[in-house]
Amino acid sequence: MTPNPFQTTLQTNTGKVSRRVLLGSLLAVLLASPLFAQDDREEMPDPEPISLTTLDGVLLRATYYAPAKPSKNVVPLILVHQLGGSKSDFEQLAVVLQRAGHSAVAVDLRGHGGSTQAVNGNATLDWKDFRTANSFTRMIQNDLEAVKAFLMKKNNEGVINIEKLGIIAAGEGCSVALNWAAQDWSWPVLLTKKQGQDVKALMLLSPPWTVKGLTVVNALRHPALQQKLALLILVGNRNSSSEVSDARKIHNLVDRYRGNSRRGDVGNPAEFYDYPTSLQGTNLLFQKLKDDEGRPLEIAILHFIRTNLEDKNEYTWRSRD
């Protein structure tokens, strides 16, 4: 495989899971939305626990939410939790995404949840020991690549369309997601094989500017992040000046590259929504929060996925064997 220059830059600079019961009234609102492709009475596939092995030998636990109707148009989504979190943080949202016709993989990043062991069993990983950018760089270069490899197999089986790949990340996981998206768009274009350029949309819940030395600056300087990828940022605006400041800084930088795009623009938008709450990250989910247009936060996510991934006919399926 041809080397990826963004990986070099990073190196230099630096899991059947039970479903939770959704809030009744909010779920009713969500299911009534035309954004849902599936009838509420239709049986959904059970969440599937999976195990993934990274290139550097870490055993990752994850959960795969398969689409009820597999097809070459199904949107795959990677769910990336915040520091100290786990894949279970996204369990409710993953069920909603599945009900909307999408597929999703929620992963325990190394040192979190069930992902605490190397394959050889000789090392134990704990996120509380992650004090430098190197630990997060390994998540970027290894953990998310392992998730994508799993989804690539599903693509080649005709179950999903990897060309419509999206990421939903929270807190510190946003830094991992942004840097991995830049890495995905840094693989050299080959005449014989497409290596990357699959991530098309990022949905970030309370993204920080820096995490233990890992910054998003280099990622945001990547041409794909500046112009190509659709971006949605969601953040609480009460008693959390640093979170709001960081989120706005990221949005404003991208928005400047795109000529001050407005929210909801068709194409490659950079959208920003803040909510009257001190909650951040995955804690924003299912709190009956609405934007200034009266939309529930979860509907904003679903609408963004439909507009920027599901309805993008130019992102045609192809075999990547």
| Helix content percent band | 25-40%
User: What are the secondary-structure elements, in order, as H or E?
Assistant: HHEEEHEEHEHEEEHHEHEH
Report the count of strand segments.
11
Query: How many alpha or pi helices?
Result: 9
* Low-confidence regions: 14-24
Number of individual domains = 1
User: How far apart, in Å, are the first and last alpha carbons?
Assistant: 14 Å
CATH class membership:
Alpha Beta
CATH topology: Rossmann fold
Please supply descriptive tags for the structure shown above.
alpha/beta; Rossmann fold; 9-stranded mixed beta sheet; two-stranded antiparallel ribbon; 9 helices; 17% strand; globular
Give an account of the 3D structure.
α4 crosses α5 (172-184). This protein is globular. 32% of the residues lie in helices and 17% in strands. Mean pLDDT is 87; it is low at 14-24. The protein has helices spanning 5-12, 24-32, 91-99, 133-156, 172-184, 217-220, 223-228, 241-257, 297-310; strands at residues 48-53, 58-65, 76-80, 103-107, 117-118, 165-170, 199-205, 210-211, 214-215, 230-236, 270-275. Strands 1, 2, 3, 4, 5, 6, 7, 10 and 11 form a nine-stranded mixed sheet that branches. The protein is built from nine helices and eleven strands. With 321 residues, it is α/β, with parallel strands linked by helices. A hairpin with a 2-residue loop joins β8 and β9. The protein has a single domain, classed as Rossmann fold.
